DNA sequence: TATGAATGAGATTTCATTCAT
DNA sequence: CATGAATGAAATCTCATTCAT
């Protein structure tokens, strides 16, 4: 068996997934610190010690989760595909839809990782560098592109990007804080947010056109 | 000395504040769990045991912080004062300015409490009921008021409210995640967000007027 | 390995016994509260934490001791075996011999548990219900039996029972208080007590016979 | 004010009594270790620190209680008064009545001190030397006296003494263990015990007379 | 003398991690 | 690889005692 035996590799990956799934559930229910390795092992149906064959330590489980979240989120390709064909508004609508959907589908992940991502600078840096920054950069560049084409103006693209991401993470926040309305009317809320962003862009575009005249 | 002796009361309050300040700093730097009672005591310049003369236990420090944050935030009166004199856009601008300012001034508090507020349902409920819900309700009612006056239309006031609060908390989130731009260009960002919201409202209002014709 | 694996079970029982023995010695020497978990662990030759794999907490060690004392004391069967063949005096002699012997052989246990059995109502109830009450009831019923056969009279069997048990526990008490004579002349004392009880019964029986005539 | 100022002395004694009473109640209810100095101070209606003006430390409260119990129990004089006038049986009856009565009247004291008296060798020695030993010695000597007068025989006076005291402490024990019958039928039980001891003595005396003939 | 806030030593308990089987 | 008992560091919290007022 070579060190890259594909069968063994698949087994290892399956085990890692099994453990991570158990950990996500536990962390999201009880928080990182109140969850014990025993809790995770029980839920995964394995022995405590086995976890240490797949993860360096408890903290490493969190790191793996952040990485997995980052990998789970291929905003890039989707956006790039659309970028050539659509208007700014369409792109931003799509981003909002896509991200908000992703987050509510993975609410357990969010509850599991965000407390630690906020609290631990190491994890924070990882999340920012591997997930947030690339995605923001992408949207930013796209907006720059449209600005240069005079399709939109006035608003600094870095600020606009941050407003969009603020709406995304803010929505997640409201959901995590248990706001019933945001939870129960998710699709209406997503529509509303999209309309809102579209309206703002349209308005500002109109303004800039007027100014340009 | 009666149980409500004012001098003693002031001393007690001062001690509580001294301890809470030390705790906020430590929690925001190292997180709730990695901060020990000894850490807090040292930073406050007192003995470990003294903390327990002012707070029931470590968790009680968190609860006190959440309560203090809620008390620190008199959105209500401010909004109500303005509500009679200004336009919707002005009100929302004010809310955004006010809340975003408050949050970045209390970033330590945010870093200290949010990980636990997300992770602990008890704390979450306290934060939601005492801070978030009343403030959202207030903005919601104000929007309802303008809707009835035909000053704005189309957008469900509950959704609009949530978008505004999402922008607020989302911005806080980006800041807590260490987004340099949001931190370094706070005032520009606040301006941008305000402009954005104004533009969206204006646009939607225009739409509704057209529709109404 | 099933949850009732006999080998594992034996190992667990052995560990529990090892820990309990260490605890009994320490408790009897220093008392429950002055004995630390570390003391017990050291004497048992294990780590502090290991104790908690076998006992819920420190108090649980006391409970286990009381239960063990109760199980250690099969007065019942012994008495019942004899009841058909012997006289009252023989039975009571046997009970005295048996109990006094048991107690001085387990003086460490007595010193370990009685302070807590007296002080804690929960433990007191357990000791009374599982050890004292059944044994007293047994003697009581036996005396009732002889009373109905006219073999003895006059004395209320519940009172007689309590006198016998008072002698037993009182002797234990004197021993625990360090009365040298009671300790050094145990067998003479046991003989004396037996003679004493026999004499009392004989005398009262004689009285009742005279009265009956 | 001289160091033996009687007024001051009386005040000091009153304070000590006040504190000790509070301590006895608390110790008997919650046990020595679960009772805090604060508990005692509250019940006595004074401040924590004040207790330390009257007692060296918490342990000293126990010592004071044992001394007080010893002083409370003037068996000596009573016995000595009677010794010249009465029979052995009367004396022993009196001793039983007196001691059993004393103990049930001071059940709180018993519950407060015995757990510690058993557990702490220092306290045990004090109790034995100052309370138990003198009283046992007294009864012993009295029995010796009657033995020499041929009023009684056969039974070793040291053993007889211990049986009597075993009955006394054993009764206390049953009471402390919560035996309802012993508690509710105290006087019947005391009568029974007296009858029992009388009967035993009478019987043994008869035996010895027969043997002597 | 009385007070009660401050102290800090010390005990219990938890639990991540290791490692022999 | 899997297991889970053993480990012991570390943290919270209590409370007897002190001492400035």
General description of the model:
Four copies of one chain form a homotetramer. Chain A is mainly alpha-helical. Chain A folds into two domains: 6-55, Arc Repressor Mutant, subunit A, CATH 1.10.10; 67-212, Tetracycline Repressor, domain 2. The first copy, chain A, is 80% helix and 0% strand. Chain A contains eleven helices and no strands. Chain A has helices spanning 6-30, 37-44, 48-51, 58-71, 75-83, 88-105, 107-119, 121-148, 157-176, 180-184, 186-212. In chain A, helix 1 crosses helix 7, helix 5 (75-83) packs antiparallel against helix 6 (88-105) and helix 8 crosses helix 9 (157-176). At the C-D interface, helix 7, helix 8, helix 9 and helix 11 of C face helix 7, helix 8, helix 9 and helix 11 of D. The structure holds a DNA duplex (21 and 21 nucleotides).
Walk me through the topology.
The structure is a homotetramer of 213-residue chains.
Chain A lengths: L5 H25 L6 H8 L3 H4 L6 H14 L3 H9 L4 H18 L1 H13 L1 H28 L8 H20 L3 H5 L1 H27 L1
Helix pairs in contact in A: 1-2, 1-7, 4-7, 4-8, 5-6, 5-8, 6-9, 6-11, 7-8, 8-9
Chain B binds a DNA duplex (21 and 21 nucleotides) through helix 3.
Keywords:
homotetramer, 213 residues, mainly alpha, Arc Repressor Mutant, subunit A, Tetracycline Repressor, domain 2, 2 domains, DNA-binding
